[in-house]
Write a structure and sequence with these properties.
Rossmann fold; about 40% helix; globular
């Protein structure tokens, strides 16, 4: 077995009082596909910088295999010393590397290479840094949030690119689908220590929950043991003094263990202030048109949006998602067509550019809209310090300037501001940027339970699947189509994901442009195989039968008498797990066949 390319062992690093890394380990072998996960502020980026040799730990061992090459994607790249983006990317190549790969990567990331680094936006600088990291084909590739500032076509391209390279990968990302598709092992950084799961991210969350439940049980047992020992010391029969001293020492050790235990980081408490209910109709658009110069953004688009809808807008950068959103919410007038807004609409907006956050504001001023000590949430006043704690800000951060906050802290601050405003229409523009997975879960739950209507612009496929009742997708040439369900439902019906507008426009060339080409044979009409048609007919009954079986098994497990028969309890539990897995497989098969039927008949 080949030795690891890189090993970190017992890494210790402290900023301030609490250790950030407290005995963290990391091993990277050839061909590894590892995702590094943990809460915002847990030290993921710091551990990656230790691996890249950019941060020196206080203690611990770092071993890099002789000759192994490492490339690191930093979150805030510095291009100031280069004349062009191409110069910056080429400077990252090693002797013998091919220059053409730099141009190839920049093209797919939406850059020409001729851009002046001084005029790049933050997103463009990040894409240039991604090209520089990928270009040399290193032994180890450390990618910190590589999907930030990428649109869906670029994310899907990047996935395929990373699947094809030989480099060992270590990924930090908030994009669940991206991690699930690329990872084969998961390293969880929690309270300064690392725990390894030799499975991809798809299995991580269930394992994490089981681990935390087991830890909570252990702490409960420790608490009960401390109570018993304290009771013995106070009321027990007096034994030899030496024995009493020993047990007193053991109790002190137990108390010390309990006091030093660092519980899991608290959860953000998300609660949206709701206004009075809006009318049943939120928005109706008829044949709306919009163009900027010669470029058509929206062409003949109509839709009707009712109260309670969760609408996702998806498409490449520059497709016009924000323009369409502004028209549907009355912020921008169309060039043609009609837009009718519903009554009693009150809007709260989360802007991805965070333009409403003034750099010289403090956290407290940002939450109180510039002054005061209270925030009003759902009609009741809450002290700003208490409201800050709901979003994991420490009380001492109340006077911290906004400009020094991390990306994740700014994202939480924007959420806190938006949710404090009374609303029945919530507009979320890239809300998932810089949020950790646990906060994304809570945001998903908030959207699901929100009493009003939600417009969501996002490139996060998993988040779209979990929250949207329908999606509007840019088809190219100003055309937009609405699909029921989330991103995966759209792909199942459409047959492919998000494509670049120019690619779609090429597909839709007028007949006059293609008349000179020889006519291609007409494709044979698809047919549904008899076995598939038969399965489509039988599957609903089989799913119902399994559902009845699951209900019966759950009723058995709810019977307290069953706990006295461990063998029967284990057997019934296994039957329930098997039945639930079988039902899930049959439901997936039915959805696949139903989509095929609709495609053929449509």
């Amino acid at each position: 077995m080949a030795p690891p390319l890189l090993t970190l062992q017992g890494i210790q690093l402290t900023y301030g009082v609490t250790p950030l890394l407290d005995g963290a380990d990391l091993t990277i072998e050839e061909g590894a596909r590892l995702c590094l996960v943990g809460r915002n502020g847990s030290g993921k980026s710091t551990l990656m910088k230790v691996a890249a040799g950019l941060v020196e730990p206080d203690d611990g061992d770092v071993f890099v295999h002789p000759g192994a090459t490492i490339r690191y994607l930093e979150q805030d790249p510095d291009l100031s010393s280069f004349n062009s983006v191409m110069d910056y990317v080429l400077a990252g190549l090693a002797p013998g590397d091919e220059d053409y790969r730099a141009a190839y990567l920049l093209e797919h990331l939406g850059l020409t290479g001729e851009e002046n680094p001084a005029r790049l936006s933050g997103g463009e600088a990040r894409r240039a840094a991604l090209a520089r990291a990928l270009a040399p084909d290193p032994d180890i590739l450390l990618l910190d949030e590589p999907t930030n500032h990428l649109d869906l076509p670029a994310i899907e391209w990047l996935e395929e690119e990373l699947k094809s390279i030989r480099s060992a990968l270590v990924l930090i990302s908030h994009d669940r689908r991206f991690l699930t598709d690329l990872s084969r092992a998961t390293l969880w950084l929690d309270r300064g220590q690392t725990r390894l799961l030799n499975k991809g991210f798809g299995d991580f969350e269930a394992w994490r929950d089981e681990t935390l439940e087991a830890e909570e049980l252990e702490m409960h047992k420790l608490d009960r043991k401390i109570v018993r020992e304290e009771h013995w010391l106070r009321y027990g029969v007096t034994a030899r003094r030496k024995r009493n001293v020993r047990r007193l020492g053991e109790l002190q050790e137990l108390r010390k263990t309990r006091a030093e235990h660092r519980g899991p980081q608290g959860q953000v408490k998300l609660e949206a202030s709701t206004a009075q209910e809006s009318g049943k109709l939120v928005c109706e658009a008829r044949d709306i048109q919009k163009r900027f110069g010669d470029r058509v953004i929206i062409r003949d688009f109509s839709t009707k949006i009712a109260r309670g809808a969760r609408i996702g807008l998806i498409g490449p950068n520059g497709a016009g998602k924000t323009t369409l959103l502004n028209i549907l919410t009355g912020e921008l007038d169309p060039d043609g067509g009609d837009v009718r807004l519903g009554t009693k609409l009150e809007t709260a907006t989360l802007d991805q550019k965070r333009a409403v956050l003034k750099p010289d504001w403090t956290v407290s001023e940002a939450l109180t809209q510039g002054g005061g000590h209270f925030v009003e949430v759902n009609g009741s006043k809450k002290h700003v310090i208490a409201y800050m704690k709901d979003f994991l800000f420490a009380p001492e951060q109340s006077n911290t300037p906004v400009e020094v906050l991390s990306g994740g802290e700014k994202a939480r601050l924007m959420l806190a501001r938006a949710l404090a405003l009374p609303s029945n229409l919530l507009i979320l523009d890239e809300p998932t940027n810089d949020l950790d997975l646990e906060t994304l879960d809570l945001l998903q739950d908030l959207i699901s339970g929100y009493d009003g209507t939600v417009f969501l612009v996002s490139h996060d496929r998993d988040f779209l699947d979990r929250t949207c009742s329908s999606v509007l997708i840019a088809e190219g040439d100003g055309r937009w189509t609405e699909y029921a369900g989330g991103y995966s439902d759209m792909v199942a019906l459409r047959g492919y994901g998000v494509a670049k507008p120019e690619a779609l426009e090429t597909q839709r060339k007028p007949q006059s442009e293609t008349a000179t080409k020889p006519a291609e044979p007409k494709p044979e009409r698809k047919r549904m195989a008899n076995k598939d048609r038969y399965a489509l007919k039988l599957l609903p009954g089989e799913i119902d039968a399994l559902s009845d079986k699951i209900t019966a098994l759950e009723t058995q497990l709810a019977d307290p008498a069953l706990f006295n028969d461990s063998a029967k309890f284990a057997r019934v539990s296994q039957e329930l797990a098997d039945a639930m897995e079988a039902r899930s497989e049959k439901e997936d098969r039915w959805l696949e066949l139903e989509a095929l039927r609709e495609e053929i008949e449509g």
